[in-house]
């Protein structure tokens, strides 16, 4: 009577980067770029951590993986979010999840799990306002918007109620002050009978509501449409899209 066949000896776990380097015949650095780009699967699941300990027998490349020579280091991500009214600015990052990416995102950026870590909201927006908010993990974008934000024009649509006069637009566009500081001129126009369009720089919390109150208008709603060259476009509240690397505000 023959003895039963012993079970196969399990492979000792190895670093994923080493497995991929051996699989592709490439350097460890190239293997790490491949992994961080989301092109490697372990037991059928994408793993983006080069240091992960895995069974080499379960490592495989994604079916759509490009040649190793074409893979570059994963860039930090910047997202453009349509913040709903009532959401605190600092809580915006909690809305950016894989499930809330806009169907109409035409950026062609490959979504990675690493894109949802260490995000920071930029260019503050009042809690009661809705509209465009930049959320990024890219230090270059953060520096640009934090250091030069006061110089970047923003566009707002403000719904108001109240009686208007012949000098309403003139007063809004020049001559007002806020928190003890004279406000620089801005561009204001009527979109329709109840909506004002502001093109304005260096907007501080509560400023638009104060400006409207100064001309005896009550603010019903505020929506930010644009930051510099980047527009909100037709994106539903609570959804986001990628801002491609190289896009300038």
Note down, in words, how this protein is organized.
17% of the residues lie in helices and 27% in strands. The model has no long low-confidence stretch (mean pLDDT 92). It is elongated and about 100 Å long. With 249 residues, the protein is α+β, with helices and mostly antiparallel strands. It is built from five helices and 16 strands. Strand 2 and strand 3 (45-46) form a beta hairpin. The chain has three domains: 14-70, Roll (Structural Genomics Hypothetical 15.5 Kd Protein In mrcA-pckA Intergenic Region, Chain A), CATH 3.10.290; 78-151 and 230-249, Pseudouridine synthase I, catalytic domain, N-terminal subdomain (Alpha-Beta Plaits); 153-227, 2-Layer Sandwich (Alpha-Beta Plaits), CATH 3.30.70. The strands form four sheets. Strands 6, 7, 8, 9, 12, 13, 14, 15 and 16 form a nine-stranded mixed beta sheet that branches. Strands 3-2-5 form a three-stranded antiparallel beta sheet. It has a two-stranded antiparallel ribbon with strand order 1-4. It catalyses: uridine(35) in tRNA(Tyr) = pseudouridine(35) in tRNA(Tyr); uridine(2604) in 23S rRNA = pseudouridine(2604) in 23S rRNA. Its EC number is 5.4.99.21.
